[in-house]
Automatic annotation (TrEMBL):
<keyword id="KW-0806">Transcription termination</keyword>
<dbReference type="Pfam" id="PF02536">
    <property type="entry name" value="mTERF"/>
</dbReference>
<dbReference type="GO" id="GO:0006353">
    <property type="term" value="P:DNA-templated transcription termination"/>
</dbReference>
<keyword id="KW-0805">Transcription regulation</keyword>
<keyword id="KW-0804">Transcription</keyword>
<dbReference type="InterPro" id="IPR003690">
    <property type="entry name" value="MTERF"/>
</dbReference>
<comment type="similarity">
    <text>Belongs to the mTERF family.</text>
</comment>
<keyword id="KW-0809">Transit peptide</keyword>
<dbReference type="GO" id="GO:0003676">
    <property type="term" value="F:nucleic acid binding"/>
</dbReference>
<dbReference type="InterPro" id="IPR038538">
    <property type="entry name" value="MTERF_sf"/>
</dbReference>
<protein>
    <submittedName>
        <fullName>Uncharacterized protein</fullName>
    </submittedName>
</protein>
């Protein structure tokens, strides 16, 4: 095993009972099992760093049966191994809790071959049942139906990890500024995870300036929030910056400089240096 130097103290601190187990009868055996399963020593180390309990638990009783359940349901091997390597804590729950989470993800209807299936398992593994209920009630208080919450979760499971305050602030802004309904947002739920201060508000300001100057008409859709910063700058800022110079504030200027874009000039010159 190659846990030495600076990597060793944090590992032992995360699971002090490592010191209580036999090196030969448990730690090395588990490490070798993981190394074989994950195809490399580096992958095994990544999994253990994610959850050092993998070194001390009974893998045959705790983890491997869950992997078999996922495999039998049709979850691809690469998705299962990625789950074990990067989110192994989600496989350390008691069997009854894992069964509950697994059944819930199945009921949602996420394709087991999609990486979203694993993401949904991870999210629900981190979210106690009472927290899930509280999140659903929060959505209902914002005008959502439970079916719309399920649709949103199936498309972007991490929308359920956003704080209640963040969801409320974004939803209220989406409704008042863009006229988006809960049904519309549920079909593009990633927007709920966006930072209000860093993405939602600055992009809304760009469109407000363009609207006031007559350069943009029509509805602002989720796509305008979801596109990458570089594409957004090219399409909605640099294209109009000569006619509407006030569109560029300090925040926008910083992003333009970050991507190496050129302010001004013909459309052909408004290109990314590295594009």
């Amino acid at each position: 095993m190659r846990f030495s130097g600076p990597a060793l103290p944090p590992l032992i601190c995360s699971v002090p009972k490592l010191l209580q187990f036999s090196l030969d009868r448990r730690l090395i055996i588990n490490f070798n099992l993981l190394k074989t399963l994950l195809k490399s020593e580096s992958n095994a180390i990544s999994a253990i760093k994610c959850s050092a309990t993998l070194l001390v638990c009974n893998l045959d009783r705790t983890v491997f049966p869950k992997l078999k359940i996922l495999e039998d349901f049709g979850v691809p091997t690469n998705v299962i191994l990625k789950l074990l390597t990067t989110q192994s804590k989600s496989l350390m729950d008691h069997h009854h809790r894992f069964d509950e989470i697994f059944e819930m993800v199945k009921r949602v209807g996420i394709n087991p071959k999609s990486p979203l299936f694993a993401h949904a398992l991870v999210v629900l593994g981190k979210l106690p049942e009472r927290a899930w209920v509280r999140k659903v009630e929060n959505f209902k208080g914002l005008g959502w139906t439970e079916d719309q919450v399920i649709v949103a979760f199936s498309k972007h499971p991490y929308c359920m990890t956003a704080s209640i305050e963040k969801i409320k602030k974004n939803m209220e802004f989406f409704r008042e500024r863009f006229g988006w309904s809960p049904e519309y947002v549920s079909r593009s739920p990633v927007v709920l995870s966006f930072s209000y201060e860093k993405r939602v508000l600055p992009r809304s300001r760009v469109f407000r300036v363009l609207e006031e100057k007559g350069f943009y008409e029509g509805r602002i859709g989720a796509r305008q929030l979801m596109m990458g910063d570089k594409e957004f700058l090219k399409r909605y800022v640099l294209k109009y910056c000569e006619q509407v110079p006030e569109i560029i504030d300090d925040d926008i200027r910083g992003k333009i400089e970050h991507f190496g874009l050129i302010i001004g000039g013909s459309e052909e010159n408004i290109l990314a240096v590295n594009s």
